[in-house]
Every structure is written in C-alpha cells, then in structure tokens.
Description:
Layout: E1 8-13, H1 15-18, E2 27-45, E3 52-55, E4 61-63, E5 66-68, E6 71-73, E7 75-93, E8 98-106, E9 109-118, E10 123-129, H2 137-160
Antiparallel strand pairs: 1-2, 2-7, 2-8, 3-7, 4-7, 5-6, 8-9, 9-10
Amino acid sequence: MKSVVGMLVLCLTVGLVASPAPVQADTLTQLFIEKNVNPFDTIAIDSQFLSSVTISASNWIEGNPITYDNITYNYVASNSDPVTNLPFTLTFEVNTPFTFHFASFLGTSVVETAVANWTGSAWQIESSGNSLVVPLPGALLLLGAGLARLTAYARRRKTVI
Length: 161
C-alpha cells in the first residue's frame, strides 16, 4: 500500500535555527520520525545526496552498508533492543532536488520501506509498510462481549421454543 504521507512524520525545521551543529545557509535540516509500525532494530538510508544523518536516540550504532531490493543503503544503524519510534535528522542542500530510500528491519525481516522525494521546496513520500494490523485490546474485549451476548441470546431463544 502506498501512502502520500507514509509512516514517516515530517517536522520541517530550518537548519540554522534547529540544528544542534551549525550548517551552511544553503542547507536544510529535516526531522523525520519513524513510528506506528511494528518493532524494528535497524534502519537503512540511501544517503548519497545527504550531507549528514543524525539519530536522536542513544544506543544506535552505525554499521556497514547493506543492499536490499537492488538499493544500496550507505547509512545503516542498529540497536540491540527493538523500538517502535525513532527520530532521526537529515541535512541536505535546500535547492537541489533528490530522492532517498529508507528501510527499517527487525533482524533480516523488512518492517517498512519508503521513498522520499525532495522537489527543492517540498517533500513527496511513498511508504510501503509491511506491518501487521493488530486489533486494540478494547476492540477484542468488545468483540468478546458481543459474541458472549449473542451466544446467551441464542441459548435462551433455543430453550424458549
């Protein structure tokens, strides 16, 4: 499934204001948050057009490039404990259109992939999550209560007839 917004949430920030390190005036720092997917322990980014990639969370260790689905991901970081939410920051040239690929993994299984296009003034993101939809505990409770009520009604109706 493709989604215009995808699973990546964008919070646009100007590099000179929000970046922890000084950046050039012609660069932009963009915060992405990978969340609302199944747990993952590795992220991979095709970063050939990016000036830098910074992960905001601790305990993430940079690794060697990997290839998945004919795409070589130059930036790879992993954590020993799977997470469901991870902020990371990208720095790039403002006026230069480019595309980068993103993937999150749990072990060797893909959790989500996304393609982000920077047009020079806006983002276009397509995501194809491989996450499973898990019913909320409340929904399961309501379903169970409804089934119990239907069973009781059917039994009562059967004994009355």
